Predict the structure.
Amino acid sequence: MRILVAIAALALSGAAARAETIQPSEAPAHVGSRVTVEGVVSRVHRDARSGATFIDLGLSAAGKGFTAVIFSADAAKFTDVAALNGKTVQVTGAVRLYKGKPEVILKDAGQIAAR
């Protein structure tokens, strides 16, 4: 019986580790969930005051889209983020809302990959 429980636990942990891949427009429906958001980077910009870097995916004229955020404390972990502009990327993490807009906080370079 213990072996079956251990096998079931391993299977569930592997399923939980994989993140569902979604489009930037789908992110609001996944708040609180760990997902992979795949889309084209429409803008990369750094806030001079806070030092945070924002990577916008699927940004529309109405300002809707998805943002990956790198806070200044973690910036050294990410190299040449500006080069992602116009490229298709995958961002993995827990989706949260900030001022009504979905975002993922990037703490590790492994959370973002260019395709």
Q: What stands out?
A: Residues 44 and 80 are 11 Å apart (CA to CA).
